[in-house]
Amino acid sequence: MGFRLRGTICYRAAWRAMAAYGKGNGHGAEPLPLGVQGAWATGRAAKYPDFSAPSVDRVMVEERAAGLGKRSLKKEAKVAGLKLAVSMMDLTTLEGKDSSGKVLQLCQKAMHPHERADVPSCAAVCVYPKLVPTAKKALEGSGVKVASVATAFPSGLSPLPVKIADVREAVALGADEIDMVIDRGAMLSGEYEAVFDEIAAVKEACGPAHLKVILETGELGTYDRVRKASQIAMLAGADFIKTSTGKVTPAATPAVTLVMLEAIRDFYYATGKIIGMKPAGGIRTAKQALHYLVLVKETLGDGWLTPDLFRFGASTLLNDVLMQLEKERTGAYQGGDYFSKD
Ligand SMILES: O=C[C@H](O)COP(=O)(O)O
Fold first, then answer.
1. Whether 179 is catalytic
2. What percent of the chain has pLDDT over 70?
3. Mutation choice for ligand 1 from 315, 317, 321, CB with most ligand atoms inside 8 A
4. Which fold would CATH assign to domain 67-326?
5. Which of 153, 188, 242, 320 is deepest in the core (most CB within 10 A)?
């Protein structure tokens, strides 16, 4: 049954992904086939695109990622970057003890992070599916999206029909965005077609909701695997690729984010498709946030510096960003009590 379901849904989705892969999305880049023709020639191509990805030089990527964190930013650029970071935040609570009360508070904070009118609202509030209706109602008309983790987050270790039902339920309850986890066991065993099929099936279940695909990079072990998982996720229909659940260490790092940004860049050159990026987990300081924004600017350019294409998944980052904004404005740090606790 599970196999039939996967076979039926995913075969269709795989064909659609293949078609989209050939077409691009009309944003201007000339689509190049990126090995797809080779895959067609081998026979397995009737169903799957080519998952091959370039290998990553660990030393180079870590050096470059660290180097881009050493830029000194002028005050104006810093303030603009901090406000941008607020507008790109998926304000998150993903704890077993989450309640409607906590989510309501978080929604208020996402809509009005600061009393100053020049501080924008956050991009989204990210919650478990059961709390989607609470968030949806609280955020109505505000423009702040409701994101929900699904697919048996954070392990992903439920049968596919359960994961699909999880996604459909979250969308029916009002989620605008779905954050799914990939099957890391399959990825580590080299079962790339299974990883692809599952993402394609989830994409189909999302309907109009945007799909963020969490690679859980801390469990993938190598940058090469992160790069390949990024490629598979993008081919299978991800709107965003995301580093981590926030439940595994290491979570987001500048280096792993750079690997994924480069995968997005190369995918864009190959297909014309524009994919978003979401580092998540362990991003707690304004300084870290600015570092990530420099990585995006230097790898993908200003076009990606928008909440439509870049998000921070974070539960505690907002307060530090607000504190730094106040410091830039007044020259002094506000006391910790000045900001509401997350
Ligand atoms: O997707 C977001 C993460 O779960 C947040 O992780 P964090 O609590 O380390 O900020």
1. yes
2. 84
3. 315
4. TIM Barrel (3.20.20)
5. 242
